[in-house]
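Exercise 7.
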Amino acid sequence: MNILISTSSFARYSREPLNRLEGWGASYCLNAKGRKLTEEEIASLLGDVDGLIAGTEPLTRNVLRQAPRLKVISRCGTGLDNVDLDAAAELGIDVRNTPEAHVDAVAELTLAAILDVLRHVTESDRGVRNGEWRKLMGRLLRGKTVGLIGLGRVGRRLIELLEPFEVAILATDPREDREYADGRGVEYVNLDDLLERADVVSLHCPYSEGIRHLIDAGRLGRMRPGAVLVNCARGGLVDEEALAEALRSGSIGGAHIDTFEREPYEGPLTQVHNVTLTPHIGSYAVEGRVRMEREAVENLIESMSNGGRE
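Solution. The predicted structure, written as tokens, is:
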């Protein structure tokens, strides 16, 4: 079996996943670029590949058509918006993901991001490094209202992490779990109501073309003055140009963005002082990353051992 591992940092922190592949008898090739592959690059590598351990590179219909032997795409991560699922189904390619492994890492980064922006930690660090001794007055998280756009695994874990801060939780999700909400004191509201009431807005929903720029200029305008926006979910959910303008104008207080519509990101947010930008590091905690890679390998082996189907 020929396996391509296209995610860029695979096995950097533990060789265990590669040992498992070798023990299974597979030959494999790692991503030699050290970055996310382009559509042309991934297509050029798939001609004789039986299984793919995938990152976030675009696995379009055009790409998959150039992979005649491909039986399984095992996504090292949870999001599948980079995979043409209809094309994969038509071509008989099984698609798996690792929906649990990233949860703690993303939830903890989100909490760190909220605290960072409220207390201007990164912004203050920049000032000191630039020779400025300027004390920025921050705000407490305790007692605030936090709005979660999406209440899946990461959102629920974040709620657990927020418990000591005694915050009020608002949530919007197309699939409302009333039993969970009642047990956790979560109030389901529509999106506009959430934006108007929350001091902190955090995105935890998958991306699809239907919700591209879900947070656009109009919805940014609905947010409370001084409110904080955090996106550690998926790129494309936030209109980055509109966010840059909202931050410059002071209509919202600050933001942390970890995922971008186009990565690596080089857009206008890099010129805005009251936003923290991180390079899609949500899952980049050693413990979570190793678990994710291990589960991606096990998913691949299980699927291929079953002939490429569940």
